[in-house]
């Protein structure tokens, strides 16, 4: 049961949660991609040490029959989201984590993020909006949203551990997005680890293992 996690609801947020075996603990937040939900990222929770609590929230915007997003979907909206598209969701997500944790009599002054695709983009947004709260970021098959460059150049991610994985055959988010992200993050002082393979828009076994390490 602990490995599967438990589904829950706090106010308007639905989520999946696995507690840690000790208190206080670290908190890992799993952020799904476009059309995903709270179950999409749970495969990563199975490999997380039991000393860490894990929560996987559902994005606030329904954009498909069974899918959700971290930004509102408007008619005619096209292209990759920009930083300001994620600002409201990032702020609401941190507010949810704090309110939910307080109700559960837990305190997570800091947390780690793993985001896939669009989930990676909002992970970057959260790290830039709350640099003191976000301990580390893993961006899987994702991108840095446009408009974040100035904040990164200001050093808001200085010394922040950032793990990036991407497939050279990714047909949704070109691998060049990851390569450009690395250059920008290093310039901003982040500590970057990178895994690139011949795969598509997914996390390869090799990158999964290096992420676990």
Itemize the secondary structure elements and their pairings.
Layout (H helix, E strand, L loop, with lengths): L5 E5 L2 E6 L7 E6 L10 H4 L6 E6 L3 E2 L5 E2 L13 H21 L7 E6 L1 H12 L4 E7 L8 H5 L7 E7 L7 H13 L3 E7 L7 H8 L1
Parallel strand pairs: 3-4, 3-7, 7-8, 8-9, 9-10
Antiparallel strand pairs: 1-2, 2-4, 5-6
Helix pairs in contact: 2-3
What does this structure look like?
This protein has helices spanning 42-45, 83-103, 118-129, 149-153, 175-187, 205-212; strands at 6-10, 13-18, 26-31, 52-57, 61-62, 68-69, 111-116, 134-140, 161-167, 191-197. It starts with 5 loop residues before the first strand and ends with a helix. The chain is of the alpha/beta class and 213 residues long. The chain is 30% helix and 25% strand. Helix 2 crosses helix 3. The strands form 2 sheets. The chain has an 8-stranded mixed β-sheet, sandwiched between helices. A two-stranded antiparallel sheet has the order 5-6.
Low-pLDDT residue intervals, each spanning 5 or more residues:
none
Percent of sequence in beta strands: 25-35%
Give the strand order, joined by hyphens, for the main sheet.
Answer: 1-2-4-3-7-8-9-10
Q: What is the number of strand segments?
A: 10
**N to C succession of SSEs:** EEEHEEEHEHEHEHEH
Q: What is the C-alpha radius of gyration, as a whole number of Å?
A: 16 Å
Give the CA-CA distance, first to last residue. Answer: 25 Å
């Amino acid at each position: 049961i602990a490995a599967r996690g438990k589904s829950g609801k706090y106010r308007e947020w639905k989520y999946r949660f696995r507690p840690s075996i000790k208190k206080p603990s670290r908190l890992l937040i799993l952020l799904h991609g476009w059309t995903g939900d709270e179950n999409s990222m749970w495969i990563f929770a199975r490999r997380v040490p039991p000393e860490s609590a894990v929560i996987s929230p559902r994005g606030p915007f329904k954009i498909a029959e069974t899918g959700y997003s971290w930004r509102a979907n408007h008619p005619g909206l096209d292209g990759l989201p920009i930083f300001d598209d994620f600002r409201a969701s990032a702020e609401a997500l941190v507010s949810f984590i704090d309110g939910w944790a307080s109700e559960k009599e837990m305190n997570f002054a800091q947390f780690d993020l793993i985001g896939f695709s669009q989930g990676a983009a909002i992970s970057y947004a959260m790290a830039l909006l709350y640099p003191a709260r976000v301990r580390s970021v893993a961006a899987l098959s994702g991108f840095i949203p446009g408009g974040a460059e100035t904040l990164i150049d200001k050093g808001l991610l200085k010394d922040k551990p950032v793990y990036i994985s991407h497939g050279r055959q990714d047909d949704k988010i070109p691998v060049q997005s990851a390569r450009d992200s690395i250059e920008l993050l290093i310039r901003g002082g982040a500590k970057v680890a990178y895994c690139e393979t011949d795969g598509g828009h997914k996390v390869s076994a090799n990158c999964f293992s290096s992420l676990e390490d």
